Amino acid sequence: MAGTSRSAKPPPKRAPRKVTGAGTRTSAKVTRNPEASRIRILDTARIEFVTHGLNGARVDRIAAQSGVNKNLIYHYFGSKDALYLAVLERIYADLRARQQDQDLRELDPVEGMRRLVGNTFDHFVATPDLIRLMSVENIHYGEHLKTSQTTRPLYRGLLDTIRILLRRGQDQGIFREGVDPVDLYLSISGLAYFFLSNQHTLSWLLDRDLTSRDRVSRRREHVVEMVLSYLTQLTRKTK
After folding, report:
1. CATH architecture entry for 33-78
2. CB contact at 8 A, 103 and 161
């Protein structure tokens, strides 16, 4: 009929185009990398535990800072305590890797011991988090580390390296007899650990900047020479 208007039909809907350019939506699935996520969580958790200790650390903060869902953290590690243990195991493993057992065993005993002491000191300097976390774990009487299945075996290799170097030096008449490998490593570790863990208080008490690069370097040299002087000072029988 004249005068009547037909309602316009809506245009047909077009299927959305799949665009993969930057800043556009895509239906492609996001590829997940579990190992990268674990490493990111461990790196973030390490900072959290160093900053707040075990009791003050919060999984919510770790999740937010690492950019992962909190449930994913529990999926990978099970609990906050298990995550803390994983951080401890990783940092101790890094220390042992730095000490380079196999390479040291091939060296002259004096040079091998010199490098072992120096490598230990250098790793403490490079990873102050290790010192903080060792202090945190000792506050808890080592209860978490005692449950580790991987850390203690690493130290058997260290003691074997010390025994090999000691025995070779003793056979050559260079090192003194009767040195206990455990006592020797306690001295090596303690000479580095005490200085670095107490730098700030001792700097004030002794009125000397113990945090400067030059002072740390001089301390390293002192520790190395102190250990080697002890080992090479042969005992003499009194007449």
Report:
1. Orthogonal Bundle (1.10)
2. no
